[in-house]
Design goal:
This is Sua5/YciO/YrdC/YwlC family protein. With about 200 residues, the protein is an alpha/beta fold. The chain contains six helices and ten strands; from the N terminus they run E-H-E-E-H-E-H-H-E-E-H-E-H-E-E-E. The protein has a ten-stranded mixed β-sheet with strand order 1-8-2-3-7-4-6-5-9-10, with helices on both faces. Strand 2 (about 30) and strand 3 form a beta hairpin. Helix 1 packs across helix 5 (about 125-135). The termini are far apart.
Length: about 200
């Protein structure tokens, strides 16, 4: 049964954030808010948690394209090949923000990402995921929560999300209503920005 934690961006309680960190370190799955939609997240270095995340999305882990949530650009070199100054400037001018940037992966990526030529990086403009990553000490893996509704693509009500996922995740962070527009996906693997999916962010 998922535990619901009410954490608000204006004043995130440290003890509740610490509970989220403990859950992630123990291989748990969380649902958290972002600057776009609510998302599922887990410890990027916990292969079992990554497998659970893939099962929830009904895909094989090796086929999964889970974004990596960072709190700033300092983790880039951990996961990506060296990037040009112009690309770095482009990233810096758009982050934090509602974008997922596709970059070339390096050989040091976590086990769940081995064999991937590219990797998606997110730095949400939202204090809660930023604080989680900062306290955890490394990024988390993430995937957006889709809605079964044909009209509304993404779930926005954390209470309804909690009802749906209460037996599948360990923690649901209720931060009020979320957005229903996903991030804009921009492929930078060639060095030139190419919009793959238009979402909330404007390039």
């Amino acid at each position: 049964m998922a535990k619901i934690l009410r954490i608000y961006p204006e004043n995130p309680q440290e003890n509740l954030i610490n509970e989220v960190i403990k859950t992630l370190n123990n291989g748990g799955l969380i649902i958290y808010p972002s600057d776009t939609v609510y998302a599922l997240g887990c410890n990027i270095f916990d292969i079992r948690a990554m497998e659970k995340l893939a099962q929830m999305k009904k895909i094989k882990l090796e086929k999964a394209q889970f974004s990596i949530i960072c709190n700033d650009l300092s983790h880039l070199s951990d996961f990506t090949r060296p990037i040009d100054t112009s690309v770095f400037r482009f990233l810096k001018s758009h982050l934090p923000g509602p974008f997922t940037f596709i970059l070339e992966a390096n050989k040091n990526v976590p086990l769940a990402y081995k064999g991937h030529k590219t990797i998606g990086i997110r730095v949400p403009d939202h204090p809660i995921p930023q604080l989680i990553v900062e306290k955890l000490g490394h990024p988390i893996a993430s995937t957006s929560i889709k809605d079964d509704d044909e009209i509304i693509e993404y779930s926005t009500d954390p209470e309804l999300i909690a009802e749906k996922y209460e037996h599948l995740v360990d923690i649901v962070i209720d931060s009020g209503y979320g957005d229903n527009i996903a991030s804009t996906i921009v492929d930078l693997s060639s060095g030139e920005p190419e919009v793959i999916r238009q979402g909330k962010g404007i390039v």
